[in-house]
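Before going further, it is useful to explain how the protein records used in this thesis are read. An example of such a record is reproduced below.

***
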Amino acid sequence: MKGSRPGKLPPASPTEQGGRTCAAPGCATKLSIYNLSPTCWQHSDVIFPNYRGKRLAEDRS
């Protein structure tokens, strides 16, 4: 049986300061250090990921 050396470790995930709360008025949700947004998931904009194909053009009416 022959083994191989482990590769390099992946880079650490980006983090923010601890103890932050959601920036939306009246929201007291404590944010994770891994949440780079200033708001919690309820107050963040909805983003639809485009996994394959092209993103459809916006209506230009």
